[in-house]
Sequence to fold (924 residues):
Amino acid sequence: MSKRLSRRGFLKLGLGAAAGAAGAQLFLSSRAGSLSPVAQAAQGTIIPKYYLAGTDGWASLPGVGNTHFYPDTWAPTGKTSYMFGFADVSAYKTVNPPVSADVLGFKQKAQSCAPMMYFDEVDPNDPNKQPYVVRLTNLGLAMRPDLVDSHTVHWHGFRNVIPMFDGEPGSSMAVPIGRVFDYAYYPYECGTYMYHCHFEDTEHVHMGMVGPVVVRPKQNGTSKTYGGRTFTKFAYNDGDGSTGYDREYVMFLSEVWNESHWDDAHIQLPDWTDYKADFYLINGRVYPDTIKENGEAVGAPTNGVPGDLGDQPYSALAKCKPGERVLLRFVNLGFTKASMTLAGIRMRVVGMDAVQLKGKSNVDGSYETNTIQIGPGESVDAIFTAPAHSGGSGYDSYMLYNRNIPGISNNGNAGLGGQMTEVRVYPANSNAISATQVGPNDLAYLA
Amino acid sequence: MKRRLLPAILAALAILLVSGTQRGTALAQALPTDPRNGVICETSTDGHFDLTATIGYALMSDGNAIHMWGYALGEHSDVSVAAEHYQYPGPILCVNQGDTLSITLHNLLPEDTSLIFPGQDNVQAGNALSQPQFSAGTLTSLAPVAQAAAIVSGNVVSGSTMTYSFVASQPGTYMYESGTNAGVQVQMGMFGTIIVRPTVDANGNDFSYHYNYHDGNRAANEGQVAYAYARPDSAYNPAHEHVEILSEIDPFMHQAYESDFISWMGTGDFTAQFDMQNYVARYFLINGRTFPDTMADNNAAWLPNQPYSALVHIYPYDAATNPNPALVRYVGAGTQDYPFHPHGNDSLVIGRDGRALVNASGADLSMYKFSIPVGPGQTWDITFDWKDDNNYSSSNPIPVTVPQTANLTVGPYWSGSAYLGSSGALPPGGEGYSQCGEYYHIAHNHALQQMTSWGGITLSGQATYTRIDPPLPNNCP
Ligand SMILES: [Cu+2]
Ligand SMILES: [Cu+2]
Fold:
């Protein structure tokens, strides 16, 4: 005969797992003095590496508009779509108190996608190892003063994490409006990850609280020669230079379903099981904005109004020279699988989910492909060697796009858009791009 | 807004939803009682099982009762009894490598039905090779059928039976499912899991399954070892073996079939009204349950026809005292990839579709992943363990200052302490489900719209938690 719990017993204990009656009730009754302001640890001050502010904002997703949900008629000029997101307030990470007037100024300045974060792998046996801290505050939602949603940072894929630093609010805590929380990480495993808010995560993830995280391997800085070329930057601690590269670009995939974004601005709620993306983004932009430079202010127009890319700072252009090895770090935090095709250049997939493709017995599992299938919550590291230049002084273009065809339309309209960008191969002697990359994604501050 | 489907057929059949204690058949049980969490294996001394195809009901956490088709273990001729014994998903059948597994299928449904066994060789049906069935050149079924039941004087009378059998030649995780009108019948719930346990490998090494189970004594069940495949590197802790079957439901489809069934009982004429072109899944389930029922124990009384818990309940990895991981067998029973994401640690994928992940010479190709994209008809065998890489404790504290509780939004599974086995302050009046300072890590489908259910109810779909208790001995109940 089977052991059975009564529904009543279960409900008495709440939702669950902890359904072993007596113990739980004892435990509940033992909680006194709940408000005592006890700091659980204080070991001097660790300056955060990044400081993020959860808030709302607006993005420009250019398309042919005037459906009920798009473009949002409440959007500021040049914007189309209501977003939640993280603003980068790292410039104020040493200011005390942390939620200064400057930081408060980022309310309704959510960035799409969230700030790219780069860390260096930590050696677990280093006696002087220091944790990285990511600070989070919550500025509230300017459009929705009725909502008091908290936020978190969930580093998706971080191994052997304790609940306190996992950012899943059911199992630990979240950050209410006006408060601050420091997440501490010792990244012992290199690779390509992602992060997102996990508070009411269907909504907060889809609304845009998503970004990439990279952990650079310990092997970086050493020289390894592979295929006749010497590298000092690697995707993994490969031991043989096989994941060495000259330049790297994050290709961060996400989606926008107009109805849910409009609903959040207009105090409505969607039925998420109706989900169907209208826009597919790379690095927080849709084509052709993806091929505009980092920080470019003006994007493609919607209904004749130029786009405002002020809160979408990341280009998705990959630039290189013949013979260079280029690492593409694909991350998908949309809700549908993408098929990222690089037409005309084969890629070698060397890693997946922040793990180099070699089994426990060191069997090489890397493979060549021109199409990378990547599902929600997955990451893929792929390296290609830039082909010879065709001649002249201009660049050669190779399209990188989602072969899941709805993913390369903006709002379902004719013409190309969505998850599409270019790989540009410049002549070897060109001065149009720097001889060595200033930093990942051509962003000096990530170097 | 809550939309509710009326389980009209319940009244028509006078089915009692509280009959759980009657579950169980003459078949031999692997364990004297079912464990609170983890796999419930149905076993049989001679490898033979009877399954009755029947209607039944499944309860969603929003309160809807869904008309289902599927299987009741054992032979039943009375549809109301069969519906009481109905379970969603179908019974998990466990056999040893080399056993002949046979199933006699009885049919109380208004359509012909059959069983197919993807991944098995030389399946016999009615003492001949199981073959697709044709009528006048038209494919009618993927396998020989048990014919539909009939209505005689207002009563449902069983149709014919069909017996299927095969030698379970390779260890691993497999499905059985309907091969007749499969687009509809599988979706209505006609699928289940087969576990084939390894025995002896080609060199005579013994990997056979021995699990000494003590009811109600978690600690006594620890420290044992079993194998998913006939390989030493597939070792796992048999006290933490789990099956997580991922599926989905379109309530309109099921409601239409319920009304068709009622008409059939009245007229003897069964006509399906639902156009599958209109199919849209609205519920997303693990082991036939939606969150938070996924976390409830096996055989939870309020889910009489959804017996399988989806809570993975473990202790931290320790090289000396707890070296073997949990085994989780993911089964894709829906229509799409479910990118499943267990928090806390990567999963080590050791097998897929009933084969260990090895190359042609047997070298290990297992891989750590943080997303397990379980596709339709796939099975993924993963091992999972967790440890605190930094050994945080009150004497080795976390390196940041934590704000006082009043400045945080505290979750229901939070113990009040950062440290495993400790508890601390929670907000006044706050509910805490933590019992002994255990940790919880969520495990969920990362196509996050599938973590919701019909009508916009968030966190009510394909989600569950992994519970990590402090190392033994502990004070956990
Ligand atoms: Cu959030
Ligand atoms: Cu995630």
About this structure: The CA atoms of residues 283 and 303 of chain B lie 16 Å apart.
